[in-house]
């Protein structure tokens, strides 16, 4: 591989939860002058449309059952393009450092002598809760918030004790496919079956839906409403707050 005299920079850019209006100014400016964009599959098309014509796009979309490109190969791709002298916008849904594997990609770049810059984005948790008007913290309900990945290997072996309950909010990323196991695990750890939950699908996008219920019925609710990714699960007393009439209208309109 031929290296350029000066490597390009890899920009790890958070695309936010979907709505382009939620991009940071830095992210928008980088997109509007990008020549090479390596993007996740969940990045909204409206965000990609900000990139100038003629730019190269490389999709490295991942799903639960299929990965277009393994993570090691993505790391190698970023390094290879940068060493060839190209600036690379690595566009990730949400924030690069919250379940975005941005840390791994930054380490790979640094190890290869490639300059890297991290551009934070509105995380899925913050974007979804704001769009649904569900406060993750509230003086009367929660002073602790935890973020967990719901599709990690060995879910039953994970220690989630104390992450959810009175005075706490638990936000679960990538938990739709494992909703039944998540509910069973939390109830086995002592969380009340009646604990309020909310599932937020396509947060901040025109097709956003919010469904709410109790922990014991989480799996049935996900199946009944045919919830699909991208979706976030919020568990805690705060989910009973927000504009309930507005949220109910969103659910009814989607049915």
UniProtKB/TrEMBL annotation:
One of its GO terms (molecular function) is uroporphyrin-III C-methyltransferase activity. Its EC number is 2.1.1.107. It holds the Pfam family TP_methylase. Keywords: Methyltransferase, Porphyrin biosynthesis, S-adenosyl-L-methionine, Transferase. It is an enzyme of class 2 (transferase). Pathway: Porphyrin-containing compound metabolism; siroheme biosynthesis; precorrin-2 from uroporphyrinogen III: step 1/1. Residues 9-216 form the Tetrapyrrole methylase domain. The keyword RNA-binding does not apply. One of its GO terms (biological process) is methylation. Belongs to the precorrin methyltransferase family. This is uroporphyrinogen-III C-methyltransferase. It comes from Novosphingobium pokkalii.
């Amino acid at each position: 591989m031929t290296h350029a005299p000066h490597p390009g920079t890899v920009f790890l850019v958070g695309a936010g939860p979907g709505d382009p209006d939620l991009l940071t100014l830095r992210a928008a400016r980088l997109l509007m002058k990008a020549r090479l964009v390596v993007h996740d599959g969940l990045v909204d098309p409206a965000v990609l449309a900000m990139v100038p014509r003629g730019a190269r796009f490389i999709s490295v979309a991942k799903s639960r059952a299929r990965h277009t490109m393994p993570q090691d190969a993505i790391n190698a791709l970023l390094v290879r393009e940068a060493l060839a002298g190209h600036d690379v916008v690595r566009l990730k849904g949400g924030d690069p450092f919250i379940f975005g594997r941005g840390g791994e990609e930054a380490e790979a770049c640094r190890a290869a002598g490639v300059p890297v810059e991290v551009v934070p984005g509105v995380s899925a948790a913050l974007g979804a809760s704001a769009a649904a008007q569900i406060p993750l913290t509230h003086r009367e309900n929660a002073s602790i918030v935890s973020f967990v990945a719901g599709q990690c290997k060995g879910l039953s072996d994970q220690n989630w004790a104390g992450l959810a309950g009175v005075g706490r909010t638990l936000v679960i990323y990538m938990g739709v496919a494992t909703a039944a196991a998540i509910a069973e695990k939390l109830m086995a750890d002592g969380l009340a079956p009646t604990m309020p939950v909310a599932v937020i699908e396509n947060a901040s996008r025109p097709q956003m839906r919010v469904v709410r219920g109790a922990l014991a019925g989480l799996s049935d609710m996900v199946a009944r409403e045919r919830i699909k990714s991208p979706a976030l699960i919020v568990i805690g007393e705060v989910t009973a707050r927000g504009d309930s009439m507005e949220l109910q209208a969103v659910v009814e309109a989607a049915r």
